[in-house]
Recover the amino acids of this structure.
């Protein structure tokens, strides 16, 4: 497993939070709610965690001028194609809080995810939120081949996903500290 921790500089941290706010405002205007029925401040928090994880991944991959997108859900990957050597076709980022919990923290791959796309798991420090680490990656199709990973951990409508254990993730080549 990759253990390098990336700490965002003030500019990248603030850009991540500003992008999360704009994403949330666009979602509200379009009548969308975050997955699994959350709304309000919780919905903004979900966008913040996602944007911070994307920025941490871009920093870890050495992308010189990271850009976070708005209104590109399911149309463009979080890591743009050609932005780094490790993922020339681009990649999606899934961010989880790196909590001290008695159960494993796994990466969700959903039924509507592009099976050909690589997914990168970022574990975000829940206290600072400015630091985190890339746990690894997997292509969605490979995760979808594992029926034993398919579950609904919160028993919520629309919560079915392949929950990929961290041990099954591949190390990312070229991650910098």
């Amino acid at each position: 497993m990759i253990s390098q921790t990336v700490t965002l500089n003030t500019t990248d941290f603030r850009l991540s939070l500003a992008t999360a706010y704009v994403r949330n405002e666009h979602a509200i205007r379009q009548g969308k709610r975050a997955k699994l029925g959350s709304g309000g401040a919780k919905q903004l928090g979900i966008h913040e965690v996602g944007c911070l994880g994307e920025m941490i991944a871009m920093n870890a991959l050495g992308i010189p001028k990271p850009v976070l997108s708005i209104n590109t859900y399911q149309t463009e990957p979080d890591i743009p194609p050609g932005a780094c050597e490790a993922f020339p076709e681009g990649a999606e980022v899934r961010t989880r809080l790196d909590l001290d919990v008695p159960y494993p923290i796994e990466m969700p791959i959903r039924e509507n995810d592009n099976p050909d796309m690589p997914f990168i798991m970022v574990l975000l420090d829940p206290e600072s939120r400015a630091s985190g680490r890339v746990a690894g990656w997997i292509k969605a199709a490979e995760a979808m081949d594992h029926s034993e990973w398919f579950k609904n951990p919160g028993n919520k409508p629309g919560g079915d996903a392949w929950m990929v254990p961290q041990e099954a993730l591949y190390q990312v080549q070229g991650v910098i500290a």
Observations:
- The chain has one domain: 6-168.
- Residues 105 and 165 are 7 Å apart (CA to CA).
- The radius of gyration is 15 Å.
